[in-house]
Amino acid sequence: MTGDWDDLTARIRACVLCKDLVASRNTVVPGEPGMFTRRLAVVGEAPGAQEDAAGRPFVGLSGQLLDQLLADAGLARHETAVLSAIKCRPPGNRTPRAAEVDNCRPWLAAQLDLLNPRLIVALGLTAATWFLGPRTTLAGVRGVVHEVDGRSVVATYHPSAAIRFGPNGKPLAALRDDLALAARLLGDAL
């Protein structure tokens, strides 16, 4: 898989379909396959400023929280593929536009085809709608397993929402519960 992943990553890094994103990005953030021991993929929205600077997904505050919550659930980031719906940072950290998500759709689809995860956790509304469609609401879809194109998907809040609403907010509790659900599902499948 390493050679195939490296080839796919090189093709993603060469993408110039989204002119606004190409003009404002520092780097493309294709994602990381991890050791992929448990065949879990987490899919976020888009790189933020720190990810754009580092070229790696989830390295800022949201990434630190994600790492902690994964560990709390008995999951390890180094065993997890960490991907995003789009691979370039939107200017001003705005929500990705539908056309940008559509342009990146083949890249994420190719990554998922290559990795063939047992379970996907979609973090945030952009990632959830990538899998579940445009009328998705997180409140309406989180906490259950959805079958999408033969893959199991759990949709939940993005770590940035958990940070924004604080330690007593609903997004953090939901994210914690949904990662625990993912750990149980992966444990049942072993």
TrEMBL record:
GO biological process: DNA repair
Record keyword Signal present: no
Domain Uracil-DNA glycosylase-like: 30-180
SUPFAM superfamilies, per the entry: Uracil-DNA glycosylase-like
Pfam families, A to Z: UDG
InterPro entries tied to this protein: UDG_Type-4/5 (IPR051536), Ura-DNA_glyco_family4 (IPR005273), Uracil-DNA_glycosylase-like (IPR005122), Uracil-DNA_glycosylase-like_sf (IPR036895)
Superkingdom in the source lineage: Bacteria
CDD domains: UDG-F4_TTUDGA_SPO1dp_like
PANTHER family linked: TYPE-4 URACIL-DNA GLYCOSYLASE, TYPE-5 URACIL-DNA GLYCOSYLASE
Family membership noted in the UniProt record: Belongs to the uracil-DNA glycosylase (UDG) superfamily. Type 4 (UDGa) family.
Entry protein name: Type-4 uracil-DNA glycosylase
